[in-house]
Amino acid sequence: MKFPGKILLVLSCFLILAVLLHSCRKAEEWDEEQSDERLSGGSQTVFSEGVGAFSEAFPTLTGTRLEMHDLGDAHFEATFVSSPAPLFQGLGTIFNSNSCFNCHINDGRGKPILNTEPLASMLFRVSIPGSGVHGEPLSAPGYGGQLQDKATFGYSPEAGVTVNWIESTAFFTDGDSIKLREPVWNFVNHYTSVPAGMMYSARVAPPLHGMGLLEQIDEYKIRELADVNDLDGDGISGKPNSVWDEKNQRKMLGRFGWKSEAATLDQQVAGAYNEDMGVTSYIFRTESSFGQVQYDNIRDEPEVPDSIFNSVVFYVKTLAVPARRKVTDPVVKRGKEIFSQASCNKCHIPTIRTKTDVTFPEASNQLIHPYTDLLLHDMGPGLADQRPAYEASGQEWRTPPLWGIGLTQLVNGHNNYLHDGRARSLMEAVMWHGGEAEASVNFVKALPKADRDALLSFLRSL
Amino acid sequence: MKRISSFILGTFIIVATSCKKDSETAPVVPVLTNQEIQTNILEDFSRKLVLSTYQDMENKMNTFYNACLDFDASQTQSDLENSRIAWKTVRAVWEQSEAFLFGPVSTENIDPSTDTWPVDYNSLDSLLNTSNAFTQAYMNSLGDELKGYHPAEFILWGATGNKMPVDFTPREREYLIALAADLQIKSTQLRASWDPSVADNYLLHIVNAGQAGSIYPSQRAVFEEIINAMIGICDEVANGKIYEPFASSDPSLEESPFSQNSLTDFKNNIRGVKNVYFGDYLVDGYGLNEFMVKNNLSLHSSVSSQIDNALNSFNGITVPFGQAIFSERTQVQHVMTQINSLKATLENQLLPFIQQSITE
Asked: In chain B, N or C terminus with fewer CB closer than 10 Å?
């Protein structure tokens, strides 16, 4: 059989077109939202739902790297004592806690005091109006950047703290209500005169799991999420903080702390040794009490050896993330939908990929579900501490990661959330959101009870 | 013929009965289902083991407190010895309780304020040199580093372990009593935190696991918690409390050096693991062993023999721990090896087996 030339020509054209069309097709993009949702920490996820859920090492750590994690673990739990001493010397003279572990109990979340008892797992940042050469909050004369409420024997704590709680009620559209409480902090027994305008900001100890993964998110990805002037008009801005890093001696993108005041875990851990425990390291070689009458004049810096300090940083960097539970439960799935409909996911970004880093293979190129953008957002006057820090205003807070939040009760025996731990339940925490999150809260308020419960089921599954 | 037919009939009845399933008869010894055993284990773990241990600790702490009062009154060698024995007696219970270091003991900061180590000598000296009255309110104002078992141990035995009644200053005796009183409060708090008659107790979270009101989403989660705690204390003893002084040959890293009680402390930690596995403390209860005998006898045999091996391994050490890390290193190494073997079995075999077997 012989095809006429015309038909052959048409057929050839079709064939060429088909080939061309096929070759133009890109490989379908993998929708990262479709990945296994349980793996909150990518391959550094652990299936643990007990008291130790935040305390497990990256599961792929082996050999000397695991040994380094374990060494850091032991020193994270070490109790410091006053100098001179044969072991763990260097506590104080003024401090908030004598061990990392006593604030970060089970590597988890701290809680506020109820009344007049000593602060156990929270502290207060202080400063006076203005900012320093790097934009940092101005150190308060006589007090520095943090209020140390404890002192080694023979020295005075900078001040004591008590609290009164003011109760109020918030209403949902369907008439249901929820009790909210707000702290009124009282500062007593100052050891010296208080400088004019000294500002206080309450902070509970944040949970530590997954911090090493957050440190590995590429800076450009975080900046990409920012929308400082709300150009897309969705009412949500998102601002990167720019903070001084002592080790790198330059300003960097802030990632850690309630206002993103630390760029690196080196800085965060060294700051905690220095300010929280009065222990000097190679990064902060000067006692927090230096220049105050409380300074001990013992020249023993750095009080924590470099290798031990590095192991503790490595320990924090390599704490795994607990897996989500009940991801296929229909109520939880419904809650996840509501989380998006309420636009919670615009700041609590569910999914992000860490950068490729051959020097830190365990955290390299991991698809993680932290539920944060690491950016600053205006949370309204209700939550404001009115104490600016670098780029963060007195009303702005960093979006805290939500991974693992559903395990708080098991790990820490309480359900206190937000920077000062005022919320006594997840819904109370939701209701305190204001500012950029005002519309989201109004959305939640208008939900029927079943949907509100579904939202909570979703949060508890994280 | 009659006898033969009776015999046949009897045989038939026996055969027929033996063919019947257990569930249809009323067995003399009921065969429990796994679900029933799980529930019994959690019930006995919380009541007969944890609560009994904390109750016993509270009682023995009271004895310790009274012994300190007696010593203060008499200042005799025999009353000093009684105080030391009472310290060691209650210490034994505490160390056994470290095999289940979760719940309020951890989340309510009871562990750090009871068992803080090392002793802050400078602060303790300074404190004793003041004339402050050691009221409970004053004790509450002091940091954890000045409270608990170890400052009490240091005062009772002194740095060299051979302190005589005459060596005690009145301030030391006074502070010893205040420390014992503070420990009493902590042990009462601990017992109450698991006491089902007290509101908001932890016991109910365990026995009601998987039900509304419990923080545990399932019974399996509690079993994981329990086994992880057993693994945790094995790790702490072998790779922390023993390994660190051993590896650096540094007796200053020893946990209870003044009383030379470290080896007893370690052994009691492992006894605690045994208590949990068998569910026994003072009285017999359901333990993990009941589940394992029914479901995996060979793994049960491994676990139970490795617990005994770990406990017996201490018998090889004939001198106090602070000396053994120099003079009996092989024997100390043997203890670490045995405890690590037990830990590996708990971690790599028992935990996965329980995770697979307990589905709710």
From this structure: N
Do residues B96 and B53 lie in contact, with contact meaning Cβ atoms separated by under 8 Å? yes
CATH code, B34-357: 1.20.1420.20
| Distance from C-alpha of A138 to C-alpha of A194, rounded to nearest angstrom | 14
| A106 at B interface, C-beta within 8 A | yes
Query: pLDDT class for A298, splitting at 50, 70, 90?
Result: confident
Q: Which residue type is seen at A346?
A: K
> Which of B106, B144, B253 is facing A98, going by the closest CB pair?
B144
Distance, CA of A291 to CA of A11 (rounded, Å): 89
- Domain ranges for chain B, please list them: 34-357
For an interface test with A, give the residue of B123, B147, B243 to mutate (most A CBs within 10 A). B123
* Amino acid residing at B95: E
Q: Tell me the C-alpha distance between A425 and A453, whole Å.
A: 12
When CB atoms are compared, the residue of B108, B224, B244 closest to A50 is: B224
Instruction: Name the helix (H) or strand (E) containing A179.
Output: strand A177-188
Kindly state the tokens that stand for A418. 């937000």
Query: Which one, of A63, A34, A43, lies nearest residue A216 by Cα?
Result: A43
Mark yes or no for CB contact A102/B144 under 8 Å.
yes
Cβ atoms of B187 and B57 within 8 Å: the answer is yes
How confident is the model at residue A30, as a pLDDT? Answer: 66
Residues found in chain A: 462
In the numeric block, the tokens 């305190």 are attached to A432
- The answer to whether A11 and A375 are in contact (CB under 8 A) is no
Phi/psi at A92 (5° precision): 75, -155
Q: By the CB < 8 Å criterion, does A327 face chain B?
A: no
The ipTM value here is: 0.84
Regarding beta strands A352-353 and A94-95, do their DSSP bridges make them parallel or antiparallel, or are they unpaired? Answer: unpaired
Q: Count of residues for chain B?
A: 360
Give per-residue pLDDT as tens, A229-249.
988 888 899 999 999 999 999
Mutation site for B-interface testing, chosen from A67, A79, A161 by largest number of B Cβ within 10 Å: A79
Instruction: For residue B104, give the nearest of B10, B204, B210 by alpha carbon.
Output: B204
B109, B120, B225 ranked by CB distance to A81: nearest = B120
Q: Chain B closest CA to A127's CA: distance in Å?
A: 26
**Residue whose entry in the numeric block shows the structure tokens 């301030």:** B171
Q: What angle do CA B116, B120, B125 make, to 5 degrees?
A: 135
Q: Amino acid letter at A101? A: F
Contact map slice: A 108-127 vs B, CB within 8 A: 118, 120
Q: Is the CB of B216 less than 8 angstroms away from the CB of A81?
A: no
Answer for the pair B340, B246: CB distance below 8 angstroms, yes or no. Answer: no
User: Does residue A310 carry a pLDDT above 90?
Assistant: yes
Q: How far is A172 from chain B (nearest CA, A)?
A: 24
Residues 244-263 of B with CB under 8 A from A: 244, 252-253
